[in-house]
Hints:
The structure holds two protein chains of two kinds. Chain A has helices at about 5-20, 45-50, 60-70, 90-100, 100-105, 135-140, 150-165, 215-225, 245-255, 270-280, 305, 315-325, and strands at about 1-5, 25-30, 55, 75-80, 115-120, 145, 170-175, 180-185, 200, 205-210, 230-235, 240, 260-265, 290-295. By secondary structure, chain A is of the alpha/beta class. In chain A, the strands form three sheets. In chain A, strands 3-2-4-5-7-6-12 form a seven-stranded mixed β-sheet, sandwiched between helices. A five-stranded mixed β-sheet of chain A has the order 9-11-10-13-14, sandwiched between helices. A two-stranded antiparallel ribbon of chain A has the order 1-8. Chain A is globular, with a radius of gyration of 19 Å. The relative contact order of chain A is 0.12. Chain B has one domain (about 10-320): Rossmann fold (3-Layer(aba) Sandwich), CATH 3.40.50.970. Helices cover about 45% and strands about 10% of the residues of chain B. Chains A and B meet through helix 3, helix 4 and helix 5 of A and helix 5 and helix 6 of B.
Amino acid sequence: MREITYLQAIREALLEEMKRDERVILLGEDIGKYGGAFTCTKGLFEIFGPKRVIDTPISEDGFVGAAVGAAIAGLKPVVEIMFAGFLPLCMNQIINHAAVFHYISGGQIKVPIVIRTPVCLGMGAGAQHATSPIAWFMHVPGLKVAVPSTPYDVKGLLKQAIRCEDPVILFEHMQLYRKWNRGFVPDEDYIIPFGQADKKREGNDITIIGISLMVHKALEAARELAKEGISVEVIDPRTLVPLDKETIIKSVKKTGRVVIAETDNKTCGVGAELSSIITEEAFESLEKPVKRLAAVDVPPPVSLALEKHLYPSTKDIINAIKELL
Amino acid sequence: MIDDTQLDIEKLLTFYECMTKIRRFEEKACELFTRGAISGWIHPSIGQEAVAVGVGLQLRKEDFIVITHRGHGHAIMKGISLKKLMAELFGKKTGICGGRGGSMHLFDKDLHIVSSSIVGAQIPLAVGLGLSVKYNHENRVIVSFFGDGATNTGAFHEGLNMAAIWKLPILFVCENNLYAISTHVSTATAVENIADRATAYNIPSIIVDGNDVIEVYETTGKIIKQIREKNSGPYFMECKTYRWRGHAEGEMWELYRSKEEVERWMKKCPIERLRKKLLEKNPEISKVLRTIDEKISREIEDAVKFAEKSPFPSLTELTKEIYVEAQ
C-alpha cells in the first residue's frame, strides 16, 4: 500500500490498462505532450506515443463520434472531455449512439468507450465550464455512470470502466485533484466492480449519501458531529448506474433519516432520483422526510464571492442533519 | 453514361440485377408501408440506386459501410438478405436487429454495416472505424454514405478534418439528391458543388453522374484501389442524383417541387439507361432481363412472406441487451 493523490491514481489506472491491453487508446484535447488541462495524462504520451495518446482538434462531437466508431471496430477508447461543461457539445454521440447501439442492433454492436471528465466548480470557471451535469446521464438507458471520490475508488473504477464492454461516463471533480485528496492504494492490480456502494463511515443515527466531492464534506460533517455524540453513516454509491440500492436501503432502514449531498443542481438532480427510490422502497422506515442538499439552481457565476455559496458546505450538512434528528 | 466501357456484359447484367433488386424491394416496402405493415418510417432511395450498386460492388466483405436513414440499397449491396431486411422493417424478431432497429438503424456485425439515422452523425463514426483499421494495420476501406443535407452539419466538417489529419482509409460518398427533406440544396448550401468542401480539408474529390452506374462503379474502383494499395488517405466523391419519391414514404413532395422536375429526373432513370445500353449491345438480351426480373420478383415475394410469417419479438426482448454486462 502506498499513499497517492487522486491525480496519480488516474494516471496509474490509465498507464496500467494501456500496458495491459493494446486496444486501449486515449483521445482528447491537449492530452499529449501537454498532459491534459489538469495533468491527468501526464507522462503517457512519452511512453505510448501519438498513436495511442491522440491529441484531437477542438471537435468534441467529432472525436467522441470517432471514439464510438473505433469502439465498434474493437478498440477501447478512453476520451477526456476537458470540462464537464463541454459535454453538451458531444451529447448526440453519447446519447443517440454510444448508449443505444447495443440495444438497437439487437445485441450485435458493442461500444466500450470511457468518457472521463471533471466537474470544475471552485476556481471561478463560470457558467460554461463549472457545471455539474451528472444526473443527465443517469436518465439514459445504456450508459453507466461512475462518480469516484477517493484515489482508491478512482483507480479501481477507472480500470473497471476501461475493461467494461459498455459505455461509461466517469465524473471526476477538479477539487478532488488537489493535494489534500490522498489515500492508500494497493501496489497490486485491482478493480472495483460497478454497483457496489462503499460505506465510508459507519453510523447509527443518520445516513448521508454523498456524491463525488460531497463525500468528503459529509465525512467532515460526520467527524464534527461525532464530537457531539451524533453517529453519522456516510454512504458513497461510487456508481450511480448501476446503483447499489441494497446498501442504501439497508442504511436507511437502520437510521430512518437521510441527507443526500451532491454537486448537481437540486432540480432533477441525483438526489431527486435517490430520494424517490428511498421513498418508494423504504418509506415506512423513514422517521423524517429525505433532505436534499445540492448546488443552487443558478448558472455558476465566476465571482468567487458568489461561487463559494453554490455547493452545500460542511456547515450546511451539519445543520441539515440536526434538523432531521 | 460512359459509352466506351470495357466492362463485359456479365458485369452490366450484375448492375442491372442489383439496381432492380433495390428498386423492387423499396417499391414493395412503400406499398407495405401504406398498408400499415411496417413499423416506423421508410426512406426510399428510388432513383438513386446507381450509387449503392456502383460503390457496393467495389467493396470486400471486410470493408465497413456507414449508412443513413436512406440505407436499404447500401445494406443490400453489402449482403443483407432481403428476408432479414424486410423482417426488420416489419419489426419482427427475425429481422437483422431483432426488430429493434427498423429501416433507419441497420446493423450487421458480420457484414460490417454501421448506421445512424441522425443526419451527419455517420461521418465521425466512419472516422472512428478508420482510426481502428489504421491502428491495426488492416487492409480495409470504410465507405461513409450521406446526403447533401449532412454536409451542413458540424459533424461533417469535424469528421472530414479528422479523416484528413489522420490520413484514414475512408471514401466519403455524398449522394446529392438536391433536397434535405423539402429544402433545396441551393438555399441551404453555399457552394454549388459539395465536392468543393473537401478541398478545404485537403481531401481530393471528384464529381460523378450518380445516375450512371458505370461511372460510379469505375470511379469508385480507381479510388478504392488507391486507398487500399497506396494508403493515400481519404477521398470524397459527390454523386449528383435525385430521389423520385418523398423524403419519407407518404410525404407530400408536391409541396416543394414540381411534377415536371420529378419527371425530368425520372427520364434519367439509372436502370432504364442501363437497360437501353444492354439492348443496344444485344437486342436478344431482353429475355435475360426478363428472367432476372422474374427471379427478383420471387425473391421479394419470399422476403415478404418470411416477414409476414415471422413472430414479433416477445415482451422479454423489451428489456434485454441494454447493457453488454449485466448490472
